[in-house]
Specification:
By secondary structure, this protein is an alpha+beta fold. The strands form twelve sheets. The protein has a six-stranded antiparallel β-sheet. Strands 3-2-4 form a three-stranded antiparallel β-sheet. Strands 19-18-22 form a three-stranded antiparallel β-sheet. Helix 3 (45-58) packs parallel to helix 9 and helix 10 (234-255) runs parallel beside helix 20 (395-403). The protein is flat.
């Protein structure tokens, strides 16, 4: 056989000859075995050729993929059939050949045995649930599959679970990425040592077969890729991939065979010889040639050249070549620039010249053009990757390539190949339609390669990885550059990225950037980068593309039409493409040895900045009304400076540029700060909301430390090195408030509207305060920074742990020091905050665990400056101040309205000492003086905030005064130096006491000063008017700044010997040049000190309020105890400042004393500042409003009172109560109801009935009661299942169907209650309204469509008063609230008389005060509410009769509604009535009204007196046999099978209402006898034969004693003897004995059994009595509940003595002789058991002890639920559902929104909520950990019952931290379920349209 086969495939024949015998597996196996043998010989050439020929034929790729092959070709390929069959055949052959004749599965197993599984390497795709442990990870990208994670030990580690975004692979076992301690059990052993060597012949065939197989795959890929003119459509590519699915899966399976097979595959994929032999396309095989051509075309059309052909393309065919290259936008060598101009296809935006110029410059810079467009493939792996990219990373291919990674040799080869294709990846990505999916797949691969430092370093050295990455990024951004319009629109040469382009908008660049960030996190790689000057230049070039992007121009006239949202893209781009790489580099510049790196970066950064200033033609003035938030070059520079000083001990001045450059550097960051103030002053309002968005994003926690922090730091550096006067005047000029800073009371501002002045001035001062107080980069340690950040966030609001983590700006690079969640974070948190555990408000709103600042933090650390810097919303600053005020009030530290506290700062780093010169410059002092003066004089546009900042700055200046100046020296030369300038020196301490006499100001002619001036000149002034004008101070900030600027420029220019720069355009000449200004001279005669003292008087509102404290206590000056931190308001601030001033200089002290001695000049009459006036007005207004309100209320009350009186008078004559009773009894008025809509009060009447607002809902809570105490657990494994047959609903169902099988239907429907499932529960909020008012209210709701959340068409509404949800109105029955006392007097009629009366009353139809025939409004309403009640529940819960629609059904339904409500109330009280008292919902019970409605309808169906159970209970029937029913007709249900509680309700509802108390007691007594007998019967059935005979005898002896009828043993023995006549006790087969548990019955246990048996009935009867007659329930202990209830119901005779133990039988009161009636009842049973003994017995044992309903018990840890359910498959479609959920009532697993389980347009959760909870469903969403409630047609998210260690929910498991059950929350949920209050407590409801 083998020989024949061999001959058939003989190598000599041409391939298309004889077809191998089709198909027999045996043949294949034999052939394979033969070949294997041939190849094993030492000389295996012949075998090899033979195999080649076979493979050639089997794997022939000649037929085109898409077209179905012709028959004969297909046959040639091995077996008939379509192309699919051929493919399969080929795979079969391969499997056979690999196995070398054996079975393929055995082969797989054999190979697996040699797997040295040291690495897990499991590859997963998006949405897979994996774990990340930061404690074990070395690389931040480390991840573990669930299996490895749970097998390893990570207790106490910082781990989280996450849903993979892009896919990933398990790193378990890879010590480059994670610590070995975290490996799981499987991958801990270094197993390579003990694994035997792979036998040579095992994988021999694979080595021969696989190269051909892979080549075949590549040929298919080449074939399938048709390069059309346009981009190939998704469809075509997918088609090819679908066809190749089996082949790629086959390869994937091979990789899973383990290490041995992987190494063979690696050999095959990387072997260059193999590749050359097979693919060169030079052979005579036409097919191979064609395939090679296609490959070359594909290369060429991708804009890639094949190296050998480069010359040909480049020079000889300029026409063809040029276009290919031009598409790239680059020439492969600078020589071909000429061609570039001929056709540049990418610049179609009209800015052609620019684009080219820029591009040319770049392409000549790049080191090596070949990076971009040369690719040469030398192995299968390389070409496979090429096609993988070309086909846009199909998932299967990616998984195959990644599955190979555990092989080290492959990993290196693959990484190099990946790098080689990097540029090509970028190009494909840019063109792709599905860039998101593709990005994810790219990162899926690259993160596996580049996270490994060793590998990254190797590739960097050998393949120029860094060059490639930077170049590729540069080229990528090149395609979307536009001309910058910053500064000089016309002549700007700068280009920036266009944020509107898809590349930026869709973040297409992120895979490349994230790879770059990833490799920069490795120190060895980052070092190479920082040392390579060329790379740094290129990188700065790249960064400059983002400098000044997304420019905003202020709209001055009309609002923008279209708000662009490009700013998202801009901020994301700066953060990801610029800031994150920067942080990555910074993390390697931590020590002194790295100084060189910093110098390099700073040097090239400054060069780039200088180029930028030149490119935008920047001189010294920023262009007005434009701002960009993006200055990455400034920020690089700032951050590296900061690092240099902080960590590397570099001398700051050695890396700073000259003064002129510093002046330029500060302009743009300062412009941003001023623009922030403008935006917050609403000056940019016409630019739309997006500009506010930018201002917020700029300071937001994820951006602030890459944006605003470096900007402020850079300004601090500039301020510390520039002339302080220049800096201060620049600030006020940028903030446009120069004109405001004048002594004159009026001024003109040429650049700012009056309404913006105040907030801009506040902005400028706040900025100065921040600039001078912030120490983030000026000397704070990391821990101090973290603490300050945390305090600021906590002061604004209490925070949850996760929101704190989110709000604290972390270093964006994950590898840097403080990772949130690290130890320092936790320790700082516990130092500054207290944890508030989650609490529950009664309203049911869920709180999370919060952290709140400790008291000492408020006391010493609250820092308003930090808060202002970090607030995104201005209201947070206010919130922090409010909380601070509250703390001070509460702790009694300060009662009034405190000012933001002054806080001493940490010391400055010596390098930045110059910053403090700002506080000691004349310009600032003049500004402070002017502002103090203006505040004192009450000029407009000044606020308390301004004063606060002014004082803050003065205090800062005193704290940081340079050196103690000698008083004498300063005072001596004071007057002489004074004439040219306001102040003598620049030290604040001495300038404070300097008096300024006159000031010359420019004022509008209308100003009051002008007139005063003319007066002054004529008056005989001491100085004379000439002198006066001579010494007056003139000051213009702008002129000052100009002068300084010119000095600096000249200085730097004279050094460089250059021309003086021209001034900028005239529009920036000094403001105030408007013609109508005139000069006036003011007399001031104040110093800063005197202004402060007057201010103190003004603030305190008293003259002479300031008294220097040191006059009393000289100690204060010697040992000043000035706290670091001070609370208080303006007055205390002024006092503090004066004390500090006195401390610092004796002169100041003296002058303060002098000023205080002089009687202070009168303060201007207006004592109150505007702000205070405002608050005073407010107070007054409030007071008045309060008085008005009081008046109105009083009026209202009196009106109502008089109305009530008149209403009552009108009513009394018509009252129905006969007069004589009224006189005899105390007056019982009719119940009066208030209508909450019209506000009138009155009784409910027939014509105008009042109703209770009620909510009707179907409920299955009762049905969920179980009989065992142990609550059911949620199943968390396949073994655990929950079966519902022990629930109350199931038991009642079984009982009813059993009865219906054997007895007459109509009688069955009276014997039980329904409503355990789908019963209607009625609840009310207790408010009433007129029914006609309600109707008009509903009409108005119908027209007002805004109020959604409930559906008005279904009758839903909210109570007009308390807004509780409701859906119907229950009419109140006219008459008194508590039935008249008349009905309650006990009468002395005998029980026999009462029984007669009851029977007569039941027989009288319609004996009802409201005659049913007359249609009154009331009866109509009663009918309509009955309809509502019926419609509340589904038909299946109403119709139990065998004949649908029979009246018996309605009858059963109605009394069951009463039963449901009583049973539920019992459950709400905890299942018993021990607590007594009024009902828990006291006023809210509507049972009384409900009974009236039900009774009215029940009496429509009179029971035929024949069948009325009352007769069977109270009369002995003559003819026994007639009862049994004939053969054809089913008998009635025996009375002992009846449910006694149901009988009670039937009897009462059949009576005319209102009911007599006597009749009620009578009914209860009669029913108790039946109940007791049932108990005895059940007891007799439960015990065994011997017990029964024993009891029978003991009882029989006592039968003739006097109280025989009241002794249980006599009755029991009688019952037993009666029932023994039938077959009930017979046929006790063995199977029966098993079910009855042998119990030794003692008299006590029997008594207990009987009491427990009767209790449920007694409880319901007592509740009923409580509701009908308004009697309170007594409270009692549990053990005496029976006796208390029975006496309360009147069952216990009054003379009963309580000494000896209580016996339940003493409550019996037999209406007819006990033994007769019992034997009558037993006879019915016996006649039934004649036929059905089994069922007869089952029906007698009723389970009466139901436990309270509970939700399923949940496991402690959420992970146990998640791991089981998130992979569980849906039972319908056997797929894993997207949103699995589980019902917490019954444990059913359902698909949320799953279409697979949809039935008649209802999704599964909605269906289940109807079946399981009659419309109420409680589901736990597995993937989100939240609970969703479905109630009817609405749903709401309830919240989660699982919280993490910090008391927080984790919705959607975003954080993935371990979650633990919160028992309190679960209790709350269960409580809401049992009490049916979901609708009231949860507020956010929405319609689900059956789609859940």
């Amino acid at each position: 056989m083998a020989a024949a086969a061999a001959a058939a495939v003989g190598g000599a024949q041409p391939p298309q000859a004889e077809v191998p015998a089709p198909g027999l597996a045996l043949d294949k196996a034999a052939t394979a075995a033969h070949l294997k043998a041939a190849l094993s010989r030492p000389d295996n050439r012949a075998g090899a050729e033979e195999l080649q020929a076979l493979l050639e034929r089997v794997l022939s790729a000649e037929r085109p993929l898409a077209a179905a092959a012709d028959g004969e070709e297909a046959a040639a390929a091995g077996g008939g059939g379509g192309p699919g069959a051929a493919e399969e055949e080929a795979l079969e052959w391969c499997k056979c050949l690999l196995a070398g004749g054996g079975g393929y599965d055995e082969f797989c197993a054999a190979v697996r045995a040699y797997d040295p599984a040291a690495l897990c390497g499991l590859v997963w795709t998006a949405n897979f649930v994996a774990y990340r442990c930061r404690t074990c990870g070395i690389s931040p990208c480390m991840s573990l599959c669930a299996e490895c994670f749970h097998q390893g030990d990570h207790t106490g580690h910082d781990f989280n679970m996450f849903r993979s975004q892009a896919g990933g692979a398990c790193d378990c076992g890879d010590s480059n990425v994670m610590r070995e301690s975290g490996f799981c059990k499987r991958h801990q052993i270094k197993s390579s040592s003990n694994i035997p060597c792979v036998p040579k012949d095992l994988l021999m065939m694979s080595e021969f077969v696989l190269p051909r197989f892979i080549f075949c795959l590549i040929q298919y890929l080449r074939e399938g890729y048709n390069e059309p003119a346009d981009v190939p459509s998704e469809k075509d590519l997918n088609k090819v991939l679908q066809l190749l699915e089996p082949q790629i899966s086959f390869l994937e399976d091979l990789t899973k065979m383990g290490g041995a097979m992987r190494s063979v595959l690696t050999q095959v994929l990387t072997n260059q010889q193999n590749y050359k032999d097979l693919t060169s396309g030079l052979g005579e095989n036409a097919c191979a040639r064609k395939s090679h051509e296609k490959y070359l075309i594909a290369l060429k059309s991708s804009g890639l050249t094949y190296p050998e052909d480069k010359l040909v393309y480049g020079i000889q065919e300029p026409s063809a070549g040029a276009s290919t290259l031009a598409v790239q936008g680059f020439a492969s060598a600078t020589g071909t620039l000429g061609q570039l101009d001929s056709s540049d296809e990418e610049d179609q935006d009209g800015s052609q010249g620019l684009g080219k110029r820029k591009r040319v410059k770049l392409s000549s810079n790049t080191k090596d053009q070949s990076i971009m467009d040369v690719l040469k493939h030398k192995s299968f792996l390389e070409e496979l990757l090429f096609w993988t990219i070309k086909y846009e990373f199909p998932q299967k291919m990616v998984t195959f390539l990644l599955n190979m990674l555990p092989d080290q040799e492959y990993k290196v080869a693959f990484t190099k190949t990946f790098v080689q294709h990097y540029a090509f990846i970028m190009k494909t990505l840019k063109k792709s339609h599905e860039s998101d999916t593709m990005s994810n797949r790219i990162v899926h691969i690259s993160v596996q390669l580049f996270s490994n430092e060793e590998l990254a370093r190797q590739v960097t050295e050998e393949c120029q990885l860094l060059d490639i990455m930077v170049t590729v990024l540069l080229y990528m951004m090149e395609s979307c550059l536009i001309k910058s319009e910053l500064q000089d629109e016309e002549n700007s040469l700068h280009v920036v990225v266009n944020c509107g382009e898809a590349l930026l908008k869709n973040n297409t660049y992120w895979p490349l950037v994230s790879d770059f960030i990833n490799i920069l996190s490795h120190q060895s790689v980052a070092k190479r980068f920082l040392e390579d000057h060329g790379l740094l230049v290129t990188w700065m070039n790249f960064v400059s593309f983002f400098q000044g992007m997304n420019l905003n121009k202020r709209e001055l006239n009309e609002h923008v039409e279209f708000e662009s949202q490009t700013y998202y893209a801009a901020f994301a781009a700066e953060l990801e493409a610029c800031a994150q790489p920067m942080w990555g580099l910074l993390s390697h510049c931590k020590v002194r040895e790295t100084q060189e790196y910093t110098r390099n970066v700073v040097r090239y950064c400054l060069e780039a900045l200088q180029d930028w200033f030149d490119a935008i033609n920047f001189v010294d003035e920023p262009a007005p009304n434009q701002v960009t938030f993006h200055l990455p070059l400034h920020r690089y520079y700032a951050m590296f400076l900061s690092k240099a000083v902080k960590c590397q001990e570099l001398d700051l001045d050695s890396v700073l540029p000259d003064q002129e450059m510093l002046m330029k550097l500060m302009i743009h960051p300062l412009q941003i700060q001023a623009s922030l103030a403008e935006i917050h002053s609403n000056m940019w309002v016409r630019n739309g909301l997006q500009i506010k968005g930018q201002a917020m994003t700029y300071v937001q926690s994820h951006f602030c430390n890459s944006m605003i922090d470096p900007d402020i730091y850079l300004l601090q550096v500039c301020a510390s090195r520039l002339d302080p006067d220049y800096f201060i005047s620049s600030v006020f000029e940028r903030f446009k408030v120069v004109d405001l800073l004048t002594m004159a009371s009026q001024h003109q501002n040429t650049v700012l509207d009056a309404e913006h002045e105040r907030s801009m001035l506040e902005g400028a001062l706040t900025f100065l305060v921040i600039l001078l107080s912030l120490r983030l980069h000026l000397g704070m340690s990391d821990d101090e920074i973290l603490r300050a950040e945390m305090v600021a966030q906590l002061c604004m609001n209490d925070r949850t742990h996760s929101s704190l983590l989110d709000l604290i700006p972390e270093n964006p690079n994950p590898k840097s020091g403080i990772i949130p969640g690290s130890y320092s974070f936790e320790s700082v948190l516990s130092a500054v905050a207290d944890f508030k555990a989650p609490v529950f408000e009664p309203g049911g709103s869920m709180q999370q665990g919060m952290y709140t600042p400790k008291a000492e933090v408020w006391d010493h650390e609250f820092d308003p400056v930090m808060v202002i810097l970090r607030t995104v919303y201005r209201r947070d600053v206010q919130s922090a101040m409010d909380r601070y005020t509250a703390f001070l009030k509460q702790s009694g530290k300060f009662p009034g309205n405190p000012w933001p506290p002054y806080k001493k700062r940490t010391p400055l780093h010596p390098s930045y000492k110059g910053l403090m010169r700002l506080l000691h410059c004349k310009t600032l002092h003049i500004v402070l003086f002017t502002l103090l003066y203006k505040i004192l004089m009450d000029h407009q546009n000044l606020s308390e905030h301004v004063l606060c900042m002014v004082l803050y700055l003065i205090e800062l200046g005193l704290e940081n005064s340079a050196e103690e100046e000698s008083d004498e020296e300063a005072s001596a030369c004071g007057p002489e130096r004074c004439h040219d300038s306001w102040f003598p020196g620049s030290n604040l301490v001495s300038n404070m006491r300097h008096f300024i006499n006159y000031v010359r100001v420019r004022v509008p002619e209308t100003a009051p000063e002008v007139k005063r001036d003319s007066l002054a000149s004529t008056s005989s002034d001491s100085l004379g008017s000439l002198q006066n004008s001579g010494t007056a101070q003139v000051f213009s900030l702008v002129a000052e700044r100009r002068k300084k600027f010119q000095e600096i420029i000249n200085r730097s220019n004279s050094e460089a010997n250059q021309v003086v720069r021209p001034k900028t355009s005239s529009k920036w000449s000094a403001p105030g040049s408007a013609p109508q200004l005139t000069t006036a001279i003011l007399e001031i005669k104040e110093s800063i000190l005197s202004l402060l003292i007057k201010l103190h008087h003004k603030l305190s509102g008293k003259q002479n309020s300031y008294y220097p404290p040191w006059l009393d206590d000289i100690e204060i000056l010697i040992q000043p105890e000035i706290p670091k931190y001070s609370h208080g308001d303006g007055i205390t601030a002024v006092e503090r400042i004066l004390l500090k001033a006195a401390l610092q200089s004796r002169m100041n002290k003296r002058i303060i004393e002098e000023i205080c001695r002089k009687v202070t000049p009168p303060v201007p009459p207006k004592k109150i500042t505007a702000a205070e006036k405002k608050t005073l007005d407010k107070e007054e207004r409030r007071q008045k409003a309060r008085e008005r309100q009081q008046k109105l209320l009083a009026e209202f009350a009196s009106r109502q009172k008089s109305f009530m009186e008149t209403a009552m008078d009108v009513d009394s004559p018509e009252s129905d109560i006969p007069m004589e009773i009224t006189t005899a009894e105390p007056q019982v008025s009719e119940a009066v109801y208030d209508c909450v809509i019209c506000g009138q009060s009155g009784p409910s009447s027939e014509d105008r009935p009042t109703g209770l607002v009620v909510l009707l809902q179907a409920s299955s809570v009762l049905g969920q009661c179980r009989d065992n105490i142990e609550p059911k657990k949620l199943p968390i494994s396949e073994e655990e299942q929950i079966y519902p047959w022990d629930t109350c609903a199931a038991v009642h169902d079984v009982r009813l169907s059993l009865l219906q099988r054997y007895f007459k239907d109509s009688s069955c429907l009276l014997a039980v209650s329904i409503g355990w499932e789908g019963g209607v529960y009625v609840q009310t909020c207790g408010h009433t309204l007129h029914i006609d008012c309600h109707k008009s209210y509903m009409e108005s709701l119908r027209n007002d469509q805004v109020l959604q959340g409930f559906s008005v068409d279904k009758g839903e509404f909210t109570c007009p008063l308390c807004r509780q949800f409701a859906n119907s109105v229950l009419p109140c029955y006219p008459g008194s609230n508590v039935e008249n006392n008349l009905w309650q007097r006990p009468s002395n009629k005998s029980i026999q008389d009462l029984i007669k009366e009851v029977e007569e009353l039941q027989g009288r139809p319609g004996a009802f005060p409201v005659s049913i025939s007359s249609e009154t409004n009331l009866s109509k309403e009663m009918e309509s509410v009955m309809k509502d009640i019926k419609n509340t529940t589904q038909k299946k819960y109403r119709d139990y009769s065998k004949t649908p629609g029979s009246p018996d059904n309605d009858f059963l339904f109605m009394y069951s509604v009463a039963r449901t409500n009583l049973e539920l109330e019992l459950i709400h009280r905890g299942g018993n009535l021990c607590s007594g008292g009024a009902s828990t919902a006291g006023k809210r019970s509507c049972l009384n009204q409900l009974f009236h409605v039900l009774a009215l309808h029940m009496r429509l169906y009179s029971i035929d007196s024949e069948y009325n159970p009352w007769r069977k209970l109270t009369q002995l029937l003559e003819e026994m046999s007639s009862q049994l029913g004939s053969e054809e007709q089913q008998p009635e249900v025996p009375i002992l099978y009846h449910d006694v509680t149901s009988l009670l309700l039937i009897q009462i509802l059949m009576m005319p209402q209102p009911l007599h108390k006597d009749h009620f007691t009578c009914i209860v007594k009669v029913l108790f006898t039946l109940l007791y007998t049932q108990g005895l019967v059940a007891l007799s059935v439960k015990c065994n034969e011997e017990d029964r005979s024993a009891w029978k005898h003991t009882g029989a002896l006592k039968k003739n004693t006097c109280d025989a009828e009241k002794s249980y043993d006599v009755l029991l023995s009688f019952v037993i003897s009666e029932l023994s006549k039938g077959k009930l006790y017979h046929e006790e087969g063995t199977q029966e004995c098993a079910t009855i548990i042998p119990v030794a019955w003692s008299p006590e246990s029997m008594e207990k059994y009987l009491q427990d048996f009767c209790l449920p009935f007694l409880r319901i009867a007592s509740l009923l009595q409580h509701h009908l007659f308004g009697e309170d329930l007594p409270s009692c202990q549990e053990e005496e509940e029976f006796s208390v209830l029975s006496s309360c119901l009147g069952l216990l005779p009054t003379f009963y003595q309580t000494e000896h133990p209580f016996i339940s039988a003493s409550c019996l009161d037999w209406p007819v002789p006990a033994f007769d009636i019992i034997s009558q009842w037993c006879f019915e049973i016996n006649s039934f058991t004649e036929r059905q003994a089994e069922q007869g017995k089952a029906l007698l044992i009723q389970e009466s002890k139901w436990k309270l309903p509970h939700l399923l018990q949940l496991p402690e840890n959420y992970n146990t639920i998640f791991q089981y359910y998130h992979r569980k498959t849906c039972s319908v479609c056997t797929k894993v559902p997207k949103d699995p959920a589980v019902c917490l009532v019954c444990g059913t697993f359902v698909c949320l929104k799953g279409l697979c389980c949809k039935q008649q347009s209802y999704c599964e959760c909605v269906l289940h909520s109807q079946n399981c909870g009659a419309g109420t469903g409680i589901f736990l969403l597995i993937n989100a950990s939240v609970i969703i409630i479905i109630r009817g047609h609405r749903f709401c998210l309830w919240g989660s019952v699982y919280l993490d260690a910090h008391g927080e929910e984790d919705r959607d498991l975003r954080r993935g931290k371990p979650l633990y059950i919160c028992k309190e929350r679960y209790k709350v949920l269960e409580q809401q379920w049992i009490s049916h209050t979901f609708d009231h407590i949860n507020k956010r409801w929405g319609p689900h349209y059956n789609g859940l």
